[in-house]
Amino acid sequence: MSEEQEITKSGGVIAILTMLSRVLGMVRDMVAARAFGASWIADAFFVAFSIPNMLRKLAGEGSLTISFIPVFTEELEKKGKSEAMKLAYSVFWVTLVALALITVVGIYISPWLMKIIAPGFEDGLGKMDLATIMTMEMFPYTLLICMVALAMGILNSFKHFTAPAASQILLNISCILAILIMNKRYEFWHPGSALVIGVLIGGVLQFLLQIPPLLKYGFYFKPYLDLWHPGLYKIARMMLPSVFAASIYQINVLVNTIFVSGFPGGRSWIYYADRLIELPLAIFGIAIATAILPNLSKYAAREDKENFGSLLNFGLNLVMFLIVPSLLGLILFREPILSLIYQRGEFNAQDTLNTARAMTFYALALWASAGARIMTQSFYAFQDAKTPALSAMAGMLINLLGCVFLTKIDRLGFAGVALANAIATVTNFSLLVYFFRTRHLKWNLAETGKSLLKCLLASVPLCAISIYVSRFEFWLESGHTLDKIIWALGAVGISALLYFLIAYLLRMKELEPLIGIFRRKI
Question: Which of 98, 149, 171, 204 is deepest in the core (most CB within 10 A)?
Answer without folding.
Answer: 171
